[in-house]
Amino acid sequence: RVLCWLTSVIQGRWSSELLWVSACEYLKLPQQSEAIVIYTGWERHALVGSDIRLSCSFFSWRWTSEDVTFSWSYRPDGARDSISIFHYTGGAPYVDNKGPFRDRLEFVGNPARRDGSILLKNLDYGDNGTFTCDAKNPPDIVGRASSVRLLVFEKVPIQAGVITGAIIGAVLGLLVLIVVIYYLMRFLVARRVFNLSVSKHGRKGKGKEGSQQRQVPALSIGDPSKLKAAASEKKKQESRKDKK
Amino acid sequence: MLLILLGVLILHLVILVLLLISTSVNAWTVSSSITTDLWYNCLTSGGGYHCKVASNEDWIQAVQALMVLSVLFCLLSLVFFLCQLFTLVKGGRFFFTAIFQILASLFVMCGAIIYTVMSPDRAVGVEFGYAYILAWVAFPLCLVSGLIYIILRKRE
């Protein structure tokens, strides 16, 4: 494909509307036929009585043709045969009107956007099984159909490990939060102490050296006992000043 | 002082090893053919091992989380101990180490209690395995170690 594009560029026949896919067709160069790749989910869980949308999409190297077809088939759990429940062809969807999904199936896809999703309504335990989507995009028709398993529950079970991860994450998060708050408080308190000392330093002209000497042991984070002694000493001196 | 420090360090390492073994070894509940732990239920039959993931009920996930957290906190407290050993001022106490160690012991206690209360009924031939006993042994050791850290003061 890259070679096609480069060739077209070199030959000066490239224009902005040309995608490199059609560049090859434009140059009539032989092209490998790549298989079409179909994507559905792997496993879907649903509650009894709810609706579920089974998505089906495909990837193809060609433009989406007008004859694109989607077909869904259903194989119940334990059964060996699958029955066809949905088919889209010639621009029109055909839903199941005789089988197990009569009146419960709706086409909600957009074939032009390569979306062939169907909506199953009012699920029951009997709907457990495998749904297979097969899409064809002529002339790209070689591909493997993709299946999605439907599991219907009364109560959707918690997957193994979710609670474990949640508890561990919550505790570690709390730990980080506590550490952050602790350092924030320390930073704020230190800043407040600094501001107080600066304002005192500015106001009192007398006893400048005295206040300086008193401030130094308070700010240095040394022995906790020394810190307490300095704080209490500062408080005593402050109260003495207030009395004065 | 050096002897005390060495003793405390060795105790801490022993607790860490006990917690690791208890969390990971498959021997919380044993019977003649079935062994279960926090993560798998294994059945020995005909010389082979069949393991399937333990039930995803809420309580076993809580026990898993608590045991993993206790191992993590014990490890963290060890790191903090080594850190504080070199950065703490003379006469200071190993508060951070103590907090983490005590939290680790609380987690082990909660995990062991939940497992004891919620594990399936004791039938004939089914009894608690050594990993479960190790968890119960690790809990008081961890608590004592944490208390030692609170009392311990750094000297020169």
Q: Any idea what the shape of chain B is? A: elongated
Largest sheet of chain B: 5 strands, antiparallel
| Biggest sheet, spatial arrangement of strands of chain B | 4-3-2-1-5
Query: What is the overall pLDDT average of chain A?
Result: 76
Could you estimate the helical fraction of the residues of chain A in percent? 25-40%
How many discrete domains of chain B?
1
Number of strands of chain A: 12
Low-confidence spans of chain B: none
Q: How many DSSP H or I helices of chain B?
A: 4
Protein name (chain B): Peripheral myelin protein 22
Pfam families (chain B): PMP22_Claudin
Membrane topology (chain B): Multi-pass membrane protein
Transmembrane segments (chain B): 62-82, 94-118, 130-152
How would you sum up this structure, described in words?
The complex is a heterodimer of chains A (244) and B (156). By secondary structure, chain A is α+β, with helices and mostly antiparallel strands. Chain A folds into three domains: 1-30, no CATH class; 37-157, Sandwich (Immunoglobulin-like); 158-195. Chain A has helices at 2-10, 20-26, 162-203, 208-219, 224-243, and strands spanning 36-40, 43-47, 52-54, 56-59, 69-76, 83-89, 92-95, 105-107, 118-120, 129-136, 143-144, 146-153. A six-stranded mixed sheet of chain A has the order 2-12-10-5-6-7, with no helix packed on it. A three-stranded mixed sheet of chain A has the order 4-1-11, with no helix packed on it. A three-stranded antiparallel sheet of chain A has the order 3-9-8, with no helix packed on it. The longest helix of chain A is centred in the last third of the chain and has 42 residues, at 162-203. Chain A is elongated, with a radius of gyration of 37 Å. Chain A starts with a helix and ends with a helix. Chain B has a five-stranded antiparallel sheet with strand order 4-3-2-1-5. By secondary structure, chain B is α+β, with helices and mostly antiparallel strands. In chain B, helix 1 (2-24) packs antiparallel against helix 2 (58-87) and helix 3 runs antiparallel to helix 4. The A-B interface holds A 157-168, 171-172, 222-225 and B 53-54, 56, 58, 61-62, 64-66, 68-69, 72, 89-92.
